[in-house]
């Protein structure tokens, strides 16, 4: 481990030209004192590393010195495709992102290395959504390994409909990270009985690929037999079609509402994207009071009841009548609850 750390330290200095002991310690996840000892070891081994004093100081290599230890291993090369997502890469079992990135940066000419560093300093991708804890996905690594090696798996899966726990033999085709949630794209194995799952799955026939939420995989067993991927299967195209179909299936009903000027603005912050877009697209010209009419897609009356309550008094539901009645009942209950105690 120490040899690997010394190489990482050397490649960091080669890629970034100058770094303080504290910066090196943070990158290597060691103490500053350990960095001091490692720098002394590199110097003793003949590496021309020296320290600049002053507020802009730090460790650097002698101008022109370059190590040739920049070859990528196969695993490091594979992990480069996820170099912008170190957390998800680690979850998938591709823990060589840092080493691969360092070797790539060290191998670049100085001008390209500067541009690459500038991009990393200015653009960052944070995949998970706000205000939610990440899913617990203990089987993600095993699923990713089965996807990579084209191995069939047998899973115990928890879904919403009854029976809630079902056993499935699957041929895993890919994994997708959507807003911090991991999904498995798989098709039923030929020896798995035909079934039609409706819980976060898709597929027009019994053996077409479908989607499973990985956090709902309760147990997993990797089977010894391999499978051939379907010819021409495109994971990105499949996911785009699935997401479009999922959204269309989810919003099958509509509600007509009146929105105040503030209410229309707040739809863009508080409502789901599909409802927020429709609020702007269908809004009528403002009336004398500034309010507009709009028609919004809804998943269900119960779901819409929760969503529209977020807007408070800045929305009035016109239709459907049973949704208007539900919100009116809630408003009366709240008014009664918050009426000042007359005694």
Describe the 3D structure.
The chain is α+β, with helices and mostly antiparallel strands. 42% of the residues lie in helices and 21% in strands. It contains 13 helices and eleven strands. It has helices spanning 2-16, 21-28, 32-44, 74-79, 86-91, 97-107, 110-122, 140-149, 235-250, 261-270, 273-282, 301-309, 321-337; strands spanning 18-19, 49-52, 58-61, 151-158, 165-178, 181-188, 210-213, 217-226, 253-259, 292-298, 315-319. The strands form three sheets. A five-stranded antiparallel beta sheet has the order 7-6-5-4-8. A three-stranded antiparallel beta sheet has the order 1-3-2. A three-stranded antiparallel beta sheet has the order 10-9-11. The longest helix has 17 residues, at 321-337. The chain is extended. The model is unreliable at 76-84 (pLDDT under 50).
Which key features would you list for this structure?
343 residues; alpha+beta; five-stranded antiparallel sheet; three-stranded antiparallel sheet
Provide a short characterization of the protein structure:
The chain is α+β, with helices and mostly antiparallel strands. Helices cover 42% and strands 21% of the residues.
Write the layout of secondary structure elements.
Layout: H1 2-16, E1 18-19, H2 21-28, H3 32-44, E2 49-52, E3 58-61, H4 74-79, H5 86-91, H6 97-107, H7 110-122, H8 140-149, E4 151-158, E5 165-178, E6 181-188, E7 210-213, E8 217-226, H9 235-250, E9 253-259, H10 261-270, H11 273-282, E10 292-298, H12 301-309, E11 315-319, H13 321-337
Antiparallel strand pairs: 1-3, 2-3, 4-5, 4-8, 5-6, 6-7, 9-10, 9-11
Helix pairs in contact: 1-3, 1-6, 2-3, 10-11, 12-13
């Amino acid at each position: 481990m120490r040899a690997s750390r010394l190489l990482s330290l050397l490649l960091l200095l080669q890629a970034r030209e100058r770094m303080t002991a504290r910066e090196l310690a943070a990158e290597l996840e060691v103490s500053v004192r350990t960095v001091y000892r490692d720098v002394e070891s590199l110097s003793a081994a003949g590496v021309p590393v020296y320290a600049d004093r002053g507020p802009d100081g730090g460790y650097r290599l002698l101008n022109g010195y370059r190590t040739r230890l920049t070859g990528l291993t196969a695993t490091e090369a594979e992990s480069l495709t996820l170099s912008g997502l170190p957390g998800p890469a680690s979850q998938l079992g591709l823990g060589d992102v840092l080493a691969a990135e360092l070797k790539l940066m060290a191998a670049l000419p100085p001008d390209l290395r500067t541009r690459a560093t500038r991009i990393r300093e200015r653009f960052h991708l944070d995949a998970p959504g706000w205000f939610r804890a990440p899913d617990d996905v203990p089987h993600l690594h095993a699923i990713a390994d089965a996807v990579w090696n084209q191995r069939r798996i047998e899973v115990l899966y928890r879904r919403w409909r009854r029976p809630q726990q079902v056993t499935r033999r699957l041929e895993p085709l890919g994994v997708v990270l959507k807003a911090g949630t991991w999904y498995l794209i798989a098709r039923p194995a030929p020896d798995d009985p035909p079934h039609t799952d409706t819980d976060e799955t898709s597929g027009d026939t019994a053996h077409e690929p479908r989607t499973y939420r990985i956090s709902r995989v309760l147990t997993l067993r990797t089977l010894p037999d391999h499978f051939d991927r379907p010819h021409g299967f495109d994971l990105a195209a499949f996911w785009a079609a699935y997401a479009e179909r999922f959204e269309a299936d989810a919003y099958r009903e509509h509600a007509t509402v009146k929105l105040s000027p503030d209410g229309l603005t707040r739809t863009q912050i508080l409502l789901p994207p599909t409802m927020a877009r429709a609020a702007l697209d269908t809004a009528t010209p403002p009336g004398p009071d500034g309010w507009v009419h709009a028609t919004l897609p809804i998943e269900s009356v119960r779901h819409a009841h929760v969503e529209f309550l977020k807007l408070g008094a800045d929305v009035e539901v016109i239709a459907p009548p049973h949704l208007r009645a539900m919100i009116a009942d809630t408003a009366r209950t709240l008014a009664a609850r918050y009426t000042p105690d007359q005694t």
